[in-house]
Design a protein that fits this description.
The chain has nine helices and seven strands. It is globular and about 50 Å long. It has a single domain (about 5-240), classed as Rossmann fold (3-Layer(aba) Sandwich). A seven-stranded parallel β-sheet has the order 3-2-1-4-5-6-7, sandwiched between helices. Helix 1 runs parallel beside helix 2 (about 35-50) and helix 1 (about 15-25) crosses helix 9. By secondary structure, the protein is α/β, with parallel strands linked by helices.
Length: about 240
């Protein structure tokens, strides 16, 4: 049987790494990263140990023009694309919206919205019937992240709306599009936003009484990509412990 090929953006840590490693038993993988070379090497090694053919691709998605370069490199390395996990994303330092500057907002939009839209479009061009795209949103799209990351929340809300439109466009071609909406999840992104203790503070406030894990989000993503979700498109799956 031909192994399917999955592209995962932001695969050097957190949800992207967990998804790639979990997928490696039955997918070949194209793994995107930006600055975290060590994390990317660790993820790629784990995927190869699980039996996957793996290529790694560096691209700075704060520059949307890099998306075409990413896919040119993908085309050289892989003859087909069956699935996309559109996971790469950033936060900035927690702040109220009145403190945002234009540079912060422009970078947030470029990485979290513009580039994922372009990545999904490039992926869709290469997919055949049976392909699937999962865009990684956030529960922040529901609650707005006031006083912390309202700009981040806005980009994730935009990504969900884009997922809806793309799902409708691609359904006649037999390509499914869904979004997953993680809640408070134990990943390095909180420290990058200047709140390394955020999991300890907010985990107990979740209705289920704890933060989620990257593996729990990865399982949801891989279900959405799988034939088990063959009648699921234009959907947003909350994986947030009830938050």
């Amino acid at each position: 049987m031909t192994r399917k090929t999955l592209l995962v953006t932001g695969a050097s840590s957190g949800i992207g790494a967990a998804t790639a490693i979990m997928a490696a038993t039955d997918h070949d993988l194209a793994l995107h990263f930006n600055a975290n070379h060590a994390g990317m090497e660790e993820t790629a090694r784990a995927c190869r140990d699980a039996g996957a053919r793996v290529t790694t691709h560096r691209a700075d998605l704060s520059d949307p023009s890099c998306v075409e370069e990413l896919f040119a490199a993908f085309d050289e390395a892989h003859p087909r694309l069956d699935g996309l996990v559109n996971n790469a994303g950033i936060v900035a330092e927690a702040a109220e919206a009145t403190a945002y500057g234009a540079d912060r907002v422009a970078r947030m939009v470029a990485v979290n919205l513009t580039s994922p839209i372009l990545v999904a479009g490039q992926a869709a061009r290469r997919m055949r019937e049976g392909g699937a795209i999962v865009n990684v949103s956030s529960a922040a799209a529901k609650h707005g992240a006031p006083g912390q990351y309202a700009d981040y929340a806005a980009t994730k809300g935009g990504l969900e709306v884009f997922s809806k439109g793309l799902a409708q466009e691609l359904a006649p071609r037999g390509i499914r599009v869904a979004a997953v909406r993680p809640g408070i999840v134990a990943t390095p992104i909180h420290a990058k936003g200047g709140q390394p203790d955020r999991i300890d503070r907010l985990g107990p406030t979740v209705p289920m009484g704890r933060a989620g894990t990257a593996d729990e989000i990865a399982r949801a993503i891989l279900w959405l990509l799988s034939p088990h979700a063959s009648y699921v498109t234009d959907a947003v799956l909350d994986v947030s412990g009830g938050r």
